[in-house]
Specification:
Layout lengths: L1 E2 L12 H17 L10 E4 L4 H22 L3 E7 L8 E3 L3 E4 L2 E3 L3 H8 L5 E2 L14 H7 L4 E7 L4 H18 L3 E6 L4 E3 L1 H16 L3 H11 L6 H13 L5 E8 L1 H4 L5 E9 L1
Parallel strand pairs: 1-5, 2-9, 3-8, 3-9, 4-7
Antiparallel strand pairs: 2-12, 4-8, 5-6, 10-12, 11-12
Helix pairs in contact: 1-2, 3-5, 5-8, 6-7, 7-8
Length: 276
């Protein structure tokens, strides 16, 4: 089966040429800002807002992914997003291939089936039906790693327990198949407060996750009432990286929607992170 795009023309251009140009320009601009120096990153965080707002920050993640791939030669990617719609199962693993205006991203079905068969996981397309958090990552993936197979996962349950279970499932499936797997967590950070407030809430949590202290990151998000929408996927990425031997995370870029709108009174914040 084929999951067709649902936010093309809203979050990113629906015409192939316009989309390719936009993503290419954002990647080129990120490269000009200097090398990311990921030294073999294995897990990443990227925002999932409209490209006019967050694409420039997401581009830093995908420059780091490409540079890491040159060292590690990833076989597959696992793209994990939060569930904004409330539909579907608690942790939903898609078995479909996914289409964007740039073509089709193939599902690594062996990897997806193993993840979906782990405790707490489900093979489920309903959760993905109207959800944008995974879809928005795919045109960037298609530009930097064309042809790579992916597993697509939507987290309705973002509890710490669920995050541990999903990190264990991904790690176990990759090991069983002998796949070199990178994880991409799709998340925006604090929503609809001032840029100053967003930074005050976001930075302590980001600093914790850069230390790979996933449990403290999760707790700081809860305690500060930070409205980061994909804190579960970010927790999974940090746990997966730590299980794979990562020693630290690096914040590549932090910003907010005010950088595009010039309105800093009510912003959505974004972060690009690589776990090394």
């Amino acid at each position: 089966m084929l999951r067709k795009p649902v936010v093309a023309g809203q979050f990113y251009p629906e015409q192939e040429g316009a989309l390719a140009r936009m993503v290419g320009e954002q990647l080129a601009a990120a490269k000009k800002e200097g090398p990311t120096g990921p030294e073999g990153g294995m897990a990443f965080v990227a925002p999932h807002a409209g490209y006019v707002y967050s694409g420039a920050i997401a581009a830093h993640t995908y420059v780091a992914l490409l540079e890491s791939h040159s060292r590690k030669k990833f076989d597959s990617l696992v793209v994990i997003g939060p569930n904004h719609t409330g539909y579907g199962s608690a942790i939903a693993v898609s078995m479909d291939d996914w289409q964007t205006p740039l073509g089709v991203v193939k599902n690594d079905i062996e990897l997806s089936k193993l993840i979906a068969g782990a405790p707490g996981m489900s093979a489920d397309e309903v959760a993905h039906g109207f959800e944008h958090s995974v879809e928005v990552q795919l045109p960037f993936i298609q530009k930097v790693l064309p042809g790579v197979g992916c597993s697509f996962i939507c987290m309705g349950d973002q509890s710490y327990r669920a995050s541990v279970e999903l990190a264990d499932a991904i790690t176990g499936a990759a090991k069983r198949l002998g796949r070199r797997v990178a994880a991409i967590a799709s998340s925006d950070f604090n929503h609809y407060e001032s840029a100053e407030t967003a930074r005050k809430k976001d930075m302590p949590a980001i600093e914790a996750v850069l230390r790979l202290d996933a449990e403290n990151f999760h707790e700081l998000i809860r305690r500060s009432k930070d409205s980061a929408c994909g804190y579960g996927p970010v927790t999974v990425a940090a746990l997966f990286a730590r299980r794979g031997g990562a020693k630290e995370g690096r914040l590549l870029k932090y910003g907010n929607s005010g950088d595009a709108t010039d309105d800093y009174k009510s912003v959505v914040a974004y972060a690009s992170i690589v776990f090394l």
